[in-house]
Amino acid sequence: MARLFPTWFVTPVLLILAGVGAALGQAPWGLWPVALGGYALGLSLMTSSARPVLAGWLFGTAHFGLSLHWIVEPFLVDAAQTGALAPVGLIAMAGGMGVFWASAAGLGRRLEHGALGMAVALCLAELARAYVLTGFPWALPGHVFIASPALPAAACLGAHGLGLCLLLGLGLVLRWRAAPAVLGVALLATPFVLAALLPSAPPATGAAPTVRLVQPNAPQHLKWDPEWMGIFFRRGLEATAAEGTPDAVIWPETSLPQLLGRSGDVRPMVARASGGAPIVIGVQRYDEAGAPRNGLAVLTGHGGTVETIYDKHRLVPFGEYLPLPGVAEALGFGALAKQLAGRYAPGPGPRLIDVPGLGAVLPMICYEAIFPQDIRRVERPRAILHLTNDAWFGTYAGPAQHLALARLRAAESGLPLVRAANTGISAAINGRGEVLATLGLGRAGHLDVTLPPALPETVYVKTGDWVVGATLVLLLIGLSVLGRRKTVDVTPDRA
After folding, report:
1. Where do the TM regions start and end (predicted)?
2. N or C terminus: fewer CB in 10 A for the chain?
């Protein structure tokens, strides 16, 4: 190939292919064996490149360009106003995330341990990406295992532990020596072995509560259209009133068609449709200071009395608030800013809510389900409730990846998770991350599920990412010390 094409052309093409291959391990593709090959090729090319920082950026940008291509969907909801910003948003997101991988490549080269140093540096970069500036732990390397039999191992390792096994294992194999290669293969196999050793999830018992998940299927460009709002609301009422006697009914994010403070006429309609069962419903409201909030309300009784309110505390950048608004306006994002229902105020943080019939549960609204650390900030709940409106994410990769992350939260915590999604995918998931039932994309209706039991508290809930972080710091120090020893001048004195 070098005779047909110069190296300056071949290497970037291979880096882009490596990034695409790595991204194909993410949902909806779930091609985790292909992802292993993509990461192996990317690590190898970054190691051998004369310009590792550029190589890392190309590898990362290609990876995030494919895995996060759904980021254009919010701009296309009102294409006339914001459609032109869609490619800008994707390029900025992919290129910005690629900077983390470029930094990792620069650090990996300084460690002077080939692909092993690159693997350690990339693990550190992804850990930083998950936490810096509130973090964006989406499309992590460890997420490729969600589609594999290794997913239950997240109960011990978490996403970053899975990523450590993946990248460090490949880095050792790429040393091309027998002993490191054997250790690398053992690391790659560790998640699968752990998953096989962990106990299976017990089935729900007859005494377990039944939860009804309501999916009205309101496309985002029609969701607040006055001619359609009543249609979507009636769909929700019909699903709520369908045959059966659920113990609780869950509506998705922002599904109450009026502000909570002005909903005195519609809440009784929802309550009557439920037959007296408590309802958890996504709401919007203004707080005492006049700031808009995105949250949920627990309604009880035939009048739809508001028993509990929970406000979303992790807000979506550019969706619910505009970071650095002056800069964003100057860059041309003013049209998007005008589309915000208001610059939402965040809630105080994660907390448990009591839902009659279900007990103490941990609510998560949309974006909050991508952050595993919030589960460790509360007492252990009976289950996780996830209310979301994935209509913003389109009808392909975005909703599938969001569901995959919900599966990971369940596996990490050992907690059952039920999610009501406006346009899908509504689902019930057990404590091993296994999907028990779904209501697919673009369908209106409901899903009645028996809530599975919670598993014992997991190792990951007890330790979080501290173990992985400490391991990476020790590896970084060890490789740095060994690197210095290798650079000591051992040239003999000349007479």
Report:
1. 7-24, 30-47, 54-72, 84-104, 116-139, 151-174, 181-201, 466-483
2. C
User: Sorting pLDDT into bands at 50, 70 and 90, what band is 133?
Assistant: confident
Phi, psi for residue 289 in degrees, rounded to 5: -90, 0
User: Other C-beta atoms within 10 Å of 373: how many?
Assistant: 14
Question: Distances from the Cα of 292 to the Cαs of 266, 277, 285, 297, 325, in angstroms?
Answer: 20, 28, 6, 15, 17
Instruction: Say if residues 45 and 14 touch (Cβ distance below 8 Å).
Output: yes
Helix ranges (DSSP H) in 260-361: 267-274, 325-330, 334-339
Beta strand 305-311 pairing with 279-286: unpaired
Q: State the Cα–Cα distance between residues 461 and 155, nearest whole angstrom.
A: 8
Q: Report the alpha-carbon distance of residue 386 to residue 283 in Å, rounded.
A: 14
Sequence-ordered list of residues with C-beta below 8 angstroms from that of 139, at least 6 positions apart, any chain: 23, 26, 63, 64, 67, 68, 97, 401
Q: Return the structure tokens found at 170.
A: 């490949």
C-alpha to C-alpha distance for 29 and 435, rounded to whole angstroms: 16
Residue 272, by phi and psi: left (phi above 0), alpha (psi -120 to 50) or beta?
alpha
Alpha-carbon span 75 to 67, nearest angstrom: 17
Beta pairing partners, 388: 421
Domains for the chain: give ranges and CATH numbers. Answer: 7-199+465-486 (no CATH), 210-313+348-454 (3.60.110.10)
Q: What's the pTM value of the predicted model, to 2 decimals?
A: 0.92
pLDDT in tens, 334-393: 555 444 444 789 999 999 999 999 999 999 999 999 999 999 999 999 999 999 999 999
Q: Cα–Cα distance between 213 and 476 in angstroms, integer?
A: 47
pLDDT given for residue 340 in this prediction: 44
How does pLDDT run across 207-221, given as a tens digit for each residue?
A: 899 999 999 999 999
Pairing of strands 305-311, 353-355: unpaired
Omega prior to 323 cis, within 30 of 0: no
Instruction: Identify the burial level of 117 via C-beta atoms within 10 angstroms of its C-beta, where 0-12 means exposed, 13-18 middle and 19 or more buried.
Output: buried
Annotated catalytic residues are 253, 312, 366
Q: In what order do the strands lie in the sheet with 359-365?
A: 353-355, 359-365, 383-388, 417-421, 426-429, 435-439
Residue 493: the pLDDT is: 45
DSSP letter, residue 355 = E
CA–CA distances in Å: residue 185 to residues 112, 115, 163, 174, 412: 22, 15, 14, 11, 23
